[in-house]
Design a protein that fits this description.
Blueprint lengths: L1 E4 L3 E8 L11 E9 L1 H11 L4 E8 L2 H12 L3 E8 L4 E7 L5 E6 L8 H4 L9 E4 L5 H14 L2 E5 L16 E5 H10 L7 H12 L2 E5 L5 E5 L2 E5 L12 H14 L4 H15 L12 H8 L1
Parallel strand pairs: 1-4, 1-8, 2-6, 4-5, 8-9, 9-10, 10-11
Antiparallel strand pairs: 2-3, 6-7, 11-12, 12-13
Helix pairs in contact: 1-7, 7-8, 8-9
């Protein structure tokens, strides 16, 4: 079983020709709503990858809640760990440019109501897998990592969005997944020179015992394990929308590792899945099914 503790949002997506500069207004040519939130996205990715997954999070008592949970319900994700909050359902306002780049403003809402006390209700056990991100309170993320250590569960921490306070507890995770910008920022906070990123990754992995995974966009993904490096490539594509790529990667990585796949193979599968997610608009609707990933891998 993979438990995902994280955010559940409704994405409000506007399509624009180019992303605006500060103070600039740009015309749009499309708008839609879509279920999102990094936690929910990753839980659905785990399920579509073939894993058994339980979502732990919170939504509001409002009209957005049902829509935010729609894809998870349709995908048969276990929602027994999702509770209602007096806060509003979390939202993400997303601008997507024609080249696929995006900018996002997140209002946590009910996601901010997840507290360390909620972790006691998760009932993690030895051998379970835990997947976390940074769209819930950092004290709750840390409590979950500590609980995983205590019971012998295996944890994966996706460091998105960047939170400087997380530098203090990255070592608690068995796997850390960051993009280039996030990793460089954490390395600097830890006093590790980033002029050579791969050397910095190896140093962090050796010092903490944590596997450091850094996604590199079109260049694929690299992972530092104690004593070595692994690399994998995704697909060469022309992206339509990159919003859900990172979450798809994380969900597929967790599902693949939990299924017993070796890290190098899991990285390749997750990278291909992340590439496929860029070929459709939206976050959850774009997450590929396992059969499509297998076909793309050849």
């Amino acid at each position: 079983m993979i438990t995902v503790i994280g955010s559940i949002n409704l994405d409000l997506v506007a399509n624009v020709g180019q992303l605006p500069q500060p103070g600039e207004t740009v015309p749009g040519d499309g708008f839609k709503t879509s279920p999102g939130g990094k936690g929910a996205n990753q839980a659905l990715a785990v399920k579509r990858a073939g894993g058994e997954v339980r979502m732990v999070g919170a939504v509001g008592q409002d009209a957005f809640a049902d829509e935010a949970l729609a894809c998870l319900r349709e995908g048969l994700v276990d929602l027994s760990g999702v509770r209602e909050s007096h806060s509003t359902t979390g939202t993400a306002s997303i601008l997507v440019a024609k080249d696929g780049e995006n900018m996002i403003a997140v209002v946590p809402g009910a996601n901010g109501s997840l507290v360390p006390g909620d972790i006691k209700n998760v009932h993690l056990e030895k051998g379970d897998w835990l997947l976390l991100q940074h769209e819930i309170p950092m004290r709750t993320v840390r409590a979950a990592l500590e609980e995983a250590k205590r019971v012998g569960a295996i944890s994966i921490l996706n460091t998105a969005p960047f939170r400087p306070e997380a530098a203090e507890f990255l070592h608690l995770a068995d796997y850390v997944v960051a993009n280039e910008t996030e990793f460089d920022a954490y390395a600097e906070l830890k006093g590790i020179a980033v002029s050579d990123r791969r050397a910095a990754m190896r140093k962090m992995a050796d010092e903490t015992g944590t596997t450091i995974v850094v996604t590199l966009g079109a260049a694929g993904v690299a992972a530092a394990v104690q004593g070595g490096m692994l690399e994998a490539q995704g697909l060469k594509i022309e992206p339509v929308d990159t919003v859900g790529a990172g979450d798809t990667f994380c969900g597929y990585l967790a599902a693949s590792l939990a299924d017993g796949m070796k890290l190098e193979e899991a990285l390749r599968r997750a990278a291909v899945a992340g590439s496929l997610a860029c070929l459709k608009p939206g976050a959850q609707p774009a997450i590929p099914q396992a059969k499509d990933v297998a076909e793309a891998m050849g």
